[in-house]
From TrEMBL:
Tree of life domain: Eukaryota
Annotated residues for binding of FAD: 96
Organism: Monosporascus ibericus
UniProt lineage: Eukaryota, Fungi, Dikarya, Ascomycota, Pezizomycotina
Name the UniProt record assigns to this protein: Glucose-methanol-choline oxidoreductase N-terminal domain-containing protein
Domain Glucose-methanol-choline oxidoreductase N-terminal per the UniProt entry, residue ranges: 181-195
PROSITE patterns hit by this protein: GMC_OXRED_2, PROKAR_LIPOPROTEIN
Amino acid sequence: MGIYTKLPAEMEEVDVIIAGGGTAGCIVAARLADADPNLSILVIEGGPNNHNVPTVVVPMFFLTHLMPGNKMALFYQGKKEKQLADREVIVPSGSVLGGGSSINLTMYARPQRVDFDSWKTPVEDLQNLEGIDAVELALRFVSPDGKRQDIAHRSNPEFQPEAIGETRFVKARRMVVVSCGAIGSPLLLERSGIGKPETLEAAGIPPVSSVPGVGHEYNYHQLLAYAYKTSLGPDETLDALVQGRVDLGELMKNNDKLLGWNAQDDAWSRDFRDVPTKPLMLMSLLNGFPSDPTNIPPGQYLGVSAFSPYPYSRGHVHITKPDLDSPINFETGFFSDPHDVDLKKHVWAYKKQREIVRRMEVYRGEVASSHPPFPAGSDAACGERDGPLTDVRDIKYTAEDDAILEQWLRKNVGSTWQSLGTCKMAAVNEMGVVDPMLSVYGVEGLKVADMSIVPENVGANTNSTALAIGEKAANIFIRELGLDLSEHACQTRRSPGFSKTG
C-alpha cells in the first residue's frame, strides 16, 4: 500500500494504528511498512507539519523549542508542590512528528549496561555497554551537511501529515500501539478505561482493565543550569545569534557551519559505590547563556547544566475527567524523597561544577541571576572578573550559604524533557503496565512503545533509549503479526522479545 498524505474518507479500518508519532512511534511505523508494504498503518500525531521546517532541521535553532508557547511541544503543568516552594513545575514534551528527536538538543548519550540490567528484563546488546569516561565530547545526530537527523525525516522524508480538523472513527484490525510519551500514554490508557479502578471511577471512566500501575511512579532527570561570563569569542557561543548581533539571513544564505551546531563541547553505598559505571550526576557545557536571555546584557556566556540521572523521588500523572481539556493530576515529585538525597546531590553538583568552571581559562565570573543569592560578605558571593583566576582555592560555604543554596535549588529545579516510567514494563504486582512483549495487561492487541515503559532510569540523554525501544518494539510486533523479516534486516531485530545480556 502506498503512502497517503490525506486520510481517505472511505477508510474505516486499518491493520495497525499507532497513537503518537514520536521517536518510537515513527520507527515502529517505518519498520512495519518495510516488513510488509501491503500493511495499512495509521499514525496519529497532533502536532504541526515539521517537514523541512528550519527550526527543526537546523540544529542551532533548538533554543526556539525551549520557549513558552512553542507549537512543536506540549507543556504539561504540574500541581503546586510544597517541597518546590509551592511552584507549579512545567514539563515540556515533544508534540510533533518525530517527537523529541525533532526538537531536542541533538545530544546523543547511550546508557550503561547497568541501566538495562536494572530493568530486570533480559535485554540484547551488541556493543560495549561497560565503558564510561569522566569527560567526553558531545556526540550529535547531525548529518555531514549540517542538518538534524530526526526520526520523522529519516523514516520517510516525503511524508507530509494532514490536519484532519474533524472527528473520525477508524478501527484497527490487528494491533494498536500507544506511543504518546511518558505523560501522554498513561492519560490515553486511563481515558480508555485502563488503569487503577478508583482513579477511573473518580474521573467518570468505566473500567475496562484493572492496571493500577498506569501513571504511577513518574520518573525524571532533575535539572539545574548555571551561567557564567566568558572570554569565548562571538563565533564560539550562541549568544550573538540569540541577542540579535548577527544576521540570521546571512547565516542561512551562506550555510554557515554554526547552523549545524548544538552549542555543546561537551544512597552512595547501596547504589553507587560498587557500580563504577553508574554516574551520581551528569554535567554538560553549553556555549551560550543557558536560560531565558531576555533580561541579560549583551555579552559572551557559557552555561553548565547539572542533572541527576537516578533520582529517588517519584511523581504521578492521571486524568481527572474524560475530556481532553480538563486539567490533569500531575505531580513531578521532584525533591520529594524522604531523606532529601536528590536535594543533597544537587547541592554537591552545584559546588563541584562551580569549582570546575572557576579553573577554566575562559572563566570571567558568575552571572548572579542564575546562581543562589549568597550575601555580599560570603566567600560564595558571585562576581565578575577581567581575567582568569590564579592560585584558585575552593570556596568555603557557611551553614547560611548552604541554606540559601538549598532553597534556591527548590525554587529553580526544572525539566530536562526526559520523562519516563509511567507505563513500566514489570509484573502487575510490581505496578507494571506492560509485559516483556510490550502488551498491556488485560487488553488483547494493545501495545505501548515509548519511554513510558522504562522501569528504571538511565544515566544518559533519553532519546537514544527511545530509538532502541522503537527498534526492539518493531521487531516484536513484526513477529507477532507474522511478517517476514528481510534477509538484510539488522541482527538486532532477529531475536524475539528481549534476550539475555552478555
